[in-house]
Design goal:
Number of strands: 8
Strand order of the largest sheet: 2-3-4-1-5
Number of helices: 49
Shape: globular
Distance between the termini: 113 Å
Oligomer: single chain
Structural class: mainly alpha
Largest sheet: 5 strands, parallel
Helix content: 55-70%
């Protein structure tokens, strides 16, 4: 019998692990030096020594003055407590640095209370697909601020037990932490991470991050086991004993300790073949009362509070303390750091004890825990009590008690934005549903959290809960938690039970959810599902579900098929929402109405409606709607040519939604800002906003729009390869099923630009044909005019290219016909129409000074510097070709060249510089045009090409291969290849197609005219 005598079974000597400890301390040094946050993963099999390694590291961190906080994942049932290790670690920081943590969390206490309840009351909402991302971002920023002036070490233990929300938050922090003297260490049991373990995908993901270091803790070798034994025994062990322990433990540090402890206890089974028997042997020599307490602690979770343990055991205080003293003395149990409870020294022992419980015994212990918590809710932390109660009743095999407890736990998980845990709990509730008597289920009430669900219009306080309500909750929880595939399956189950048509409103709600999921998973555009929902609510009295269906149908129509019918549907949605008092739904519908009115030509009325909704949504604190209003307003202002207004509003909107941590909304607003900045010629700022958009979100659509913005910039700068790469990325993000014209038309426009830049005029015509065949719906002229102008410019630049002659007339006719069908409601699109008309004339060699003068005059007032520089380029060409005033031409050329230089529009700048050299026009005002010498006879020399390279370029432009060039010029194919490579380098282009396009665009081989940049007309 051990009694109160302490058994020494932990070596006072830290053995081995020098390399592993060096990695950890080096990370600490780097973080303390202010380099950047450090992230490390420590893995190894159970008992191998991960905890001892981290303890040594934490001692070193403490010695260096770092603030240390440790949190462990808690194994409770199938899922751990949401955010358990973060809550524990942050609670430690709150205790150590109360004022500093309060300052770091200032202004966001209510949201951060979802992870650290000590910060205040957890708000009930809002809940949406960005809720979790908002919480994660706030947590990251709080940690950065806390670690700005001090080194903070955060250790999360036992990641293999982590709940889904903890894993997601850890992944986010590993990626998002960008500043602060912070070291984040997570440990996990490698032998538990089997092929289907939920931690495995996270480990694979983190392996791809350069910022995360992996440390694998290996077993001890024989020499290290000898040192460990010497430390435990305080003397050198004999070699036979070392050999025996090493063989039995296989170098596992914990097994070495247990073998020594078993031998010291006089247990003849100390070297048993069974691992479980080895772990249980020291428990079995404890006094009976201690054994009973140990078994109860094993079933209570990773940690059990003293008060709760006393209530469950039924022992007097003296009896309990005596039993605990024996278990602690035997190094089986340890007091928790805060002194409030007890835990096992090693989880392997706890698992062995728990596994040794009889089935009836396990259920009885769990029932006692549940009854104790129900009798006194102060026995556990408030944020843990609900989920622990649900698990205790579940493992007590009491479905009647478990079902309401599980439902209450699901609500608590939702309030913490732990949607993955909410989903698991709801699925558990559905499993329990049939095992609970009807009279008990009738007493349950719906949580009424699923947006507009339940739609019956009845009072949730008096309406019994249905299984469909659980399916609705689970659908939304899965969607908010990012498990869209699971959500789609749940809607299918629900709709199967609604096939008989007895509840059309609920069926319509599920079809609406299904529409959203199908579209987000790129399985379709979602219209078929929405049409079904509309059919189900047709003829029914107004309801919130009815209004929601109409709003979503109108929003779909606005994006895919805008027109009078869609506007009527949106106005009907507003009417229905007002009738049922659903103001949030009404405001959402009014955004759609305002957008459709603007597209239909009633711009001022539409903008007024959007501004009114923006202000009202902000007043009500509806962040998502405020964000949507800013997104639509900035888009429409840009469409009307009011880019400066759009940027100012986007800056306000971005700050507003950023405060609410609405990352998707912020991404869309910043993407719109990038578009307007591009129009205004503020290209560097546009690129910064587009790149910021890419970093803000993982959602496909805003990332696609940002990639498209970067592709536009690359095209304008003459970086064709970069433009093509960004276009490929945008198409991949949008996916094959995205049929929205606002996404589809820009993809065609960029495809035309890349094809033209590479000299592929046939591909330009193919893209135009597909775009025109798809059509340009009402309000989408803003995307259509740039597309048609790009195609017409490509046709004009390709004039004379052999590959362009066949089909030219038909291609120009297609462009002219498409232009005639487009509206020009504001000056910016009237200018595009004028520009397009002139380019079509240039493509036929019929453009005049008057044509380009009209273009320049229409573009000049628009604050579109790039478009104006392009117009002036063509006007100068026309003036020179017609023998016009050289002084005027020189002034226009200088202005255009200055703009191109300021913008970084390399291709336009080079075209203008070459035109100046060929026409002998100065690019600086120091010399007048009339004093300049006559034009050069050979414009190719202006590009720095030799006579031989000029001949090769002429043949490249004619479409010749290297072998054909070699035959034509009587040189070897290898020499021809070298010449082509030199030409590409001197022209600054990526391929032969671009070189040919450049030669034809600049008319390098056209017959020279006395003062012309291209042949006189």
């Amino acid at each position: 019998m051990l009694g109160g005598v302490e058994t020494r079974s932990v070596s006072p000597v830290f053995v081995g692990r020098a390399d592993e400890l060096a990695i950890l301390t080096d990370a600490l040094t780097r973080a303390a030096g202010g380099h950047e946050p450090q992230a490390l993963l420590v893995g190894g099999e159970a008992g191998v020594g991960k905890t001892r390694l981290t303890e040594e590291f934490l001692c070193e961190a403490d010695r260096r003055g770092a603030v240390v906080a440790v949190g462990g994942c808690v194994e409770i049932g199938a899922e751990g407590l949401p955010f358990a290790p973060f809550s524990t670690a942050l609670r430690t920081l709150h205790r150590l640095l109360p004022a500093e943590l309060a300052a770091a969390a200032a202004g966001q206490e209510d949201e951060l209370a979802r992870i650290l309840p000590e910060l205040g009351e957890t708000p009930r909402g809002p809940h949406d697909e960005e809720s979790t991302a908002r919480l994660f971002e706030l947590t990251a920023r709080m940690l950065e601020r806390l670690a700005a002036d001090r080194t903070v070490v955060l250790v999360l233990e036992d990641l293999h037990w982590a709940d889904t929300s903890t894993r997601h938050l850890l992944s986010y922090l590993f990626r998002a932490l960008g500043s602060g003297r912070l070291v984040l260490v997570a440990t996990y049991r490698a032998d538990d991470v089997h092929r289907r373990h939920p931690l495995r995908p996270l480990l694979a993901e983190l392996d791809r991050l350069r910022t995360v270091q992996r440390i694998e803790v290996a077993r001890f070798n024989r020499a290290e086991v000898r040192r460990q034994l010497a430390g435990i025994l305080a003397s050198q062990p004999d070699e036979d004993f070392v050999e025996s322990v090493f063989d039995r433990s296989d170098g596992n540090a914990f097994f070495v300790e247990e073998l020594v402890a078993s031998r010291s206890s006089g247990c003849v089974t100390g070297l048993t073949e069974s691992l479980r028997d080895l772990l249980l042997v020291r428990v079995e020599v404890l006094p009976d009362a201690s054994q009973r307490v140990v078994r109860i602690v094993a079933e209570g979770g990773s940690t059990v509070e003293y008060g709760l343990l006393r209530a469950v055991t039924g022992l007097t205080e003296d009896e309990l303390i005596e039993a605990l003293r024996a278990a602690v003395g035997a190094n089986i149990l340890l007091p928790t750091p805060d002194g409030d409870g007890y835990r096992f020294r090693h989880s392997l022992v706890r698992e062995a004890v728990s596994d040794d419980l009889l089935p009836g015994e396990r259920a009885r212990v769990n029932r006692r825990y549940a009854e104790a918590l129900e009798a006194d809710d102060s026995l556990a932390r408030a944020e843990e009590r609900v989920i622990r109660l649900a698990n205790y009743w579940y493992y007590a095999n009491d479905a009647v008690k478990a079902l309401p407890a599980v439902l209450a736990a699901s609500v608590a998980a939702r309030r913490r934005h732990a949607y993955a845990e909410q989903l698991r709990l709801l699925e558990r509730a559905m499993d329990l549903w049939e095992g609970v008597p009807e009279e008990v289920r009738r007493e349950l009430r719906p949580a009424d959290y699923t947006e507009v669900y339940p739609p019956c219009g009845c009072d949730p306080a008096t309406t019994p809960l249905q299984r469909l309500d659980l399916l609705a909750e689970a659908t939304v929880a899965a969607r908010f938690g990012g498990e869209r595939e699971r959500a789609l399956k749940i809607t299918k189950i629900a709709l199967r039970s609604l096939d008989d048509g007895h509840d059309p409103l609920r069926a319509a709600w599920f079809w609406t959810e299904r529409s959203r999921l199908v579209a987000s998973l790129a399985r379709g555009d979602g219209w078929e599902e929405l049409a079904t929902a509309q059919e189900l609510v047709r003829g029914l009295p107004p309801s919130q579900v009815h209004a929601e269906v109409l709003v979503r149908a109108a929003s779909w129509g606005m994006l895919h098929d805008p027109g009078p019918d869609t506007l009527a549907a949106a106005e009907r949605a507003v009417e229905y929402a007002r009738k049922v008092g659903a103001e949030e739904t009404e405001l959402n519908a009014r955004i759609t109405v305002g957008s459709l009115l603007t597209d239909a030509g009633e711009a001022e009325r539409g903008l007024a409606e959007l501004y009114a909704v923006k202000d009202r949504a902000a007043e009500l604190g509806l962040g998502v709607l405020t964000g949507r209003a800013h997104v639509n307003l900035t888009s429409h202002l840009e469409s009307m040519g009011r880019s400066r207004e759009a940027v100012e509003l986007a800056e306000q909107g971005a700050e507003l939604v950023k405060k609410s941590q609405l990352m998707d909304s912020e991404a869309w607003v910043r993407g719109n800002m990038a578009e307007s900045l591009y129009s205004l010629g503020r290209w560097e700022e546009a690129a910064q906003e587009a790149r910021l958009t890419m970093s803000l979100v993982s959602s496909a659509a805003p990332r696609a729009a940002a990639a498209a913005r970067l592709s536009y910039l690359a095209l304008a700068r003459g970086e064709i390869t970069e433009a093509a790469g960004q276009l490929t990325a945008a198409r991949a993000h949008f996916g094959a099923h995205d049929a929205q014209p606002q996404h589809r038309i820009p993809m065609f426009r960029l495809g035309i630009g890349v094809a033209a830049g590479e000299g592929r005029i046939a591909d330009v015509r193919t893209q135009v044909g597909e775009a025109v065949a798809d059509g340009f719906p009402l309000g989408h002229h803003r995307y259509a005019w740039p597309l048609l102008l790009a195609a017409a410019t490509a046709e004009a630049d390709a004039r004379g290219l052999p590959a362009s002659e066949a089909g030219r007339d038909q291609a120009l006719a297609v462009l002219a016909a498409a232009a005639r069908a487009l509206e020009t409601p504001v000056p910016v699109w009237a200018a595009h129409a004028e520009f397009l008309r002139a380019e079509l004339l240039r493509a036929e060699d019929r453009d005049t000074v008057a044509d380009w003068t009209a273009v320049e005059e229409s573009v000049r007032p628009l604050e579109r510097p790039y478009l104006l520089a392009r117009a002036r380029h063509r006007l100068v060409e026309a003036l020179l070709a017609a023998g016009g005033d050289r002084e005027t031409a020189a002034g226009l050329l200088r202005e255009a060249h200055t703009t191109a230089e300021q913008l970084g529009a390399r291709r336009l700048r080079e075209d203008l510089a070459l035109l100046a050299r060929r026409a002998r026009l100065p690019l600086t005002p120091a010399h007048t045009a009339k004093d300049a010498p006559p034009p050069e006879a050979d414009p190719v020399e202006a590009l720095g090409l030799t006579s031989r390279e000029r001949d090769v370029l002429r043949l490249v432009a004619a479409g010749h291969t290297n072998r054909q060039i070699a035959e034509e010029l009587f040189i070897s194919p290898k020499t021809a290849s070298v010449h082509v490579s030199n030409i590409l380098a001197k022209l600054g282009v990526a391929g032969r197609g671009e070189a040919a396009a450049l030669a034809h665009r600049l008319r390098l081989f056209g017959p020279p005219a006395p003062e012309a940049a291209h042949p006189a007309r």
